[in-house]
Amino acid sequence: MLKFTGLVLSGLTRRKLRTALTFLSLVAAFTLLGLLQAVNSLFGGAADFLGANRLITQASTSFTQALPMRLLPQIEAVPGVRAVSHSQFFGGQYQEGRSFFPQFAVNPQRLRNTYPEWVMPEDQWRNFVSTQDGAIVGRLLADQNGWKVGDIVPLNSFIWTRVDGSRLWEWRVVGIFDGRDEEWQKRAGLMYLNYGQFDEGRTPGARGLAGVFIVQVDDPTNSERIASTIDAKFANSAEETKTQSEQEFQLGFIRQLGDIGLIVNLITGAVFFSILFLTGVAMGQAVRERIPELAVLKCLGFRDSQVMWLVLAECFVLCLLGALGGMLLATLAMQGLPPEFPVSADAFVWTVAGISVLLLTLLVGLPPALTAQRLKIVDALAGRAGDSPLEQALRSAIEWPAMGWRWLIGRPLRPQEEAP
Hints:
53% helix
């Protein structure tokens, strides 16, 4: 097929402006396709890295409903439970709302017991335990804001009010933690607050409550049994619970935003249809303009199948180059995202792009390729070559609405549009 490269390239460059505009449309479409599928891949596997030996116990109605702290020792007493910690979402805004990142009020020692994936020097762990207004921040978050140990970070909570009526809380950075491996290091963009100051500082009616309980189990194979035991302990009480794996909890939290996968796939489908329509019109027009040239190729000895494959090759090269350009732009755009959004074009995203190229080539290139294959030399040289049924239907879908509109506004049809 290398000997036909010149013919393929000459066909693409015959109308340079049209080819350039079609190429740019494909680049833009595949850039959007790459970004959307990367987001879809992120949400689809957002919790795959989490520990399999942790469960999350929340209120049965919603994770936004707090649970009393008295449940903690009862959960600890369940056979198979190794450690239990609690966490409360703080919801603070930094620098007048210009910067937002996750913050959670926790018991320092319990956090260390249930999340060994976070690593930090021993003296900083001790300071976190002993400093009531202490906070520890992830390495990514500290680097992003230029924080160091000893800094005071003011956070304006949109959820929790202090006893004096203020929503401004000040936290002293006493440690900077890292992830134990590369996957956890990517997630080191959050802050943990000492539960001591948080619980004493908020209004009396909110004290003694926790958002969720994090349960570490001895054996992950017993997680389902332990979860059922915990929920059965509080069944038919005022504090009914729902216990699930950490992966399921995180995905449930994400789904509060909506069905991200469905939304992304719908947008991707719209993008794919748009590029299918635009590229199909361009390729169909290109083949119609070259009908006499294709007839000459057949006169020179090219077989029908060879002419068909030449048209398909042109479409494939155009789609492939547009896809590569778009995916490279999408990859560069992902590099500029902040670390708390670890979106990347992984193998799944590139596979989707590759499949899209093949589908686009078949759907767009096959109709004009089949037209070129069954082209009769005499009819082509005489200008009597017809389009395929699919191309005729596509042209009708484009032209008939325009003709109907002209009829509605009273504009007469041109002579070539008049009925015979």
